[in-house]
Amino acid sequence: MYRQEKEGLVTYHFESFDKSLVNHAFYTRKGGVSEGHFSELNLGGTNGDKPEHVRENHLRLFENFGMPFDSRFDVWQVHGDTIHFTDSPRPETQKHQPGDGIFTQNPDVTLIMRFADCVPIMIHDPVKKVVGLLHAGWQGTLIEVGLVAVEAALKEYGSDPATLRVGIGPSICSHCYQIGPEVRARFFKRWGDEAAKFVNETPDGYYLDLWAANEWSLRKVGIQHIEQSHICTAENLHEWYSYRKEKGLTGRFAAAISLTPKGEHG
Ligand SMILES: [Zn+2]
């Protein structure tokens, strides 16, 4: 990934995404108006932060992203595998639908999701001109939301998985993400012996490798181009929110993607 800074907002971007075809960014916590645990650019609206601060942060994000605020499409992220294909933004008066994968072919839509340790997965199909954004915590990883989403997108758009560009964004790493025996057991129950590749056993407990597990799921459906950010949220609190490291007292950072190249929205 490469890092950019503009008017106090610090963003990260995948090297492998073609800037002339797609606009995408991960917004760090830098450059917003939220205070305390939420400082600074909290985009989460349900964690106790002041609504006027969250709204101002969204406006700053969209200004930086180069798309209008009312281009946004987002969902109520519920750790499932429901996938939405949208041709239009979500009007502010319309409630979020539950889901953990969103796709569009409309260049006037900005897909946006919120994170604090869970794995963001971005997808760009430069041939069929599609963008997608997924949310995978341990539960989404377990039920392979990446695989489910890509299979659904192949069907919906007729994409060739070999042409897709996929990025796995900042999230909690395998050294920081300890899991209990019950979560470990669920992976072995569902994934069989394969789970051993992603659950590390150490003297102080079990650790789950969300990055490798999601990459494995995506490769199973034929994805070849995958860029890993290798940025751990829990180890970089100066730029990222970490639900685990900050014991729930934290904000949410955002990932945004749109088919309109930056600076080209009229
Ligand atoms: Zn870490």
Please name the defining characteristics of this protein.
six-stranded mixed beta sheet; 266 residues; CNF1/YfiH-like putative cysteine hydrolases; alpha+beta
Describe this protein's structure.
This protein is α+β, with helices and mostly antiparallel strands. The protein has a single domain (2-173, 209-258), classed as CNF1/YfiH-like putative cysteine hydrolases, CATH 3.60.140. The protein is 21% helix and 26% strand. A six-stranded mixed beta sheet has the order 1-2-3-15-7-4. The radius of gyration is 17 Å and the shape is globular. The two termini are 28 Å apart. Bound molecules: zinc ion (ZN). Residues 173, 175-176, 232, 234-235 line the site of zinc ion.
Unreliable stretches: none
State the helical fraction.
10-25%
Helix and strand sequence: EEEHEEEEEEHHEEHEEHEE
The distinct ligands, each listed once, are: zinc ion
Give the terminus-to-terminus CA distance: 28 Å
Which sheet architecture does the biggest sheet show?
6 strands, mixed
User: Cα-atom Rg, whole angstroms?
Assistant: 17 Å
The CATH architecture: 4-Layer Sandwich
CATH classification, class level: Alpha Beta
Could you tell me the CATH topology label.
CNF1/YfiH-like putative cysteine hydrolases
Question: Which shape, going by the Cα principal axes?
Answer: globular
Physical arrangement of strands within the biggest beta sheet: 1-2-3-15-7-4
CATH H-level name... which superfamily? CNF1/YfiH-like putative cysteine hydrolases
Mean pLDDT: 97
> What multimeric state do the chains show?
single chain
Number of helices: 5
